[in-house]
Design goal:
Blueprint (H helix, E strand, L loop, with lengths): L4 E3 L13 H10 L2 E7 L6 H10 L3 E5 L11 H12 L5 E10 L7 H17 L4 E6 L2 H11 L5 E3 L6 H9 L3 E4 L9 H8 L6 E3 L16
């Protein structure tokens, strides 16, 4: 019997999945993946991820404004998010992908934090969990999460911090997202951290199509 997994983070609206949805879902099912959460990254793809979730039974949507795409977000984007959540679509199961990101020369970190806070308020208002992006910001993110104290917590996806940081998120009630990146030799520190965490604190994800697992030696 094949185990049924849930991929908690897959950008199924991106190529190579877009335009090849049925075959992609068939391959996922053959690999034991029964459900897939598709997080939005900007207001422009809210309708797309919701339409995918409505059309394909295994898919579920999350709606949010990604911190690495600030140039695409405005106050109107936040209003669109609020309006979409207000309708309470049955297959929208989380607010995400949201968070903080210090990559780049001008991350506009103050605006990122404001945008995160506003989206955490929406998650709390609509009683939804959050899918969190965090790059070089784990400590700051934990501060925001503690302050908002969501009744439905969520997951810190693609985690690559220290054991202390992971334990802090777990103490706050959040899960740690584990994906294919831990299969690479350079990820030994992250593997060590994951190995020390309780299994119940971990969630599986692919973050496809961006982060594939390392191919097995000799595999085609």
């Amino acid at each position: 019997m094949i185990c049924r997994f849930i991929d908690t983070h897959c950008h199924f609206d991106f190529p190579p999945f877009s335009g090849d949805e049925e075959a992609s879902l068939q391959r996922a099912a053959q690999a034991g993946v029964g459900k897939i959460i598709v997080p939005a990254t900007e207001a422009e793809n809210f309708a797309r991820v919701q339409a995918l979730a409505e059309k394909y039974q295994p898919l579920y949507a999350a709606l949010g404004l990604h911190p690495g795409m600030l140039e695409k977000h405005s106050d109107v984007s936040l209003e669109q998010l609020q309006q979409a959540l207000e309708r309470r679509p049955a297959k929208v199961v989380a607010v995400g992908e949201i968070g903080l990101d210090l990559f780049g020369d001008d991350p506009q970190f103050e605006r990122q934090q404001w945008l995160l806070d506003e989206q955490l308020k929406l998650a709390k208002r609509y009683d939804l969990p959050v899918i969190l992006h965090s790059r070089r910001t784990h400590d700051k993110l934990a501060m925001h999460l503690k302050r908002h104290d969501l009744p439905c917590t969520g997951v810190v996806h693609g985690f690559s911090g220290s054991l202390q940081q992971a334990e802090r998120f777990v103490q706050l009630g959040y899960k740690i997202g584990v994906g294919g990146t831990i299969t690479y030799p350079r990820a030994s520190k992250t593997r060590d951290v994951i190995a020390k965490l309780p299994l119940a604190s971990l969630l599986l994800e692919t973050d496809a199509p961006g982060y594939a697992a390392q191919r097995l030696s000799g595999a085609a």
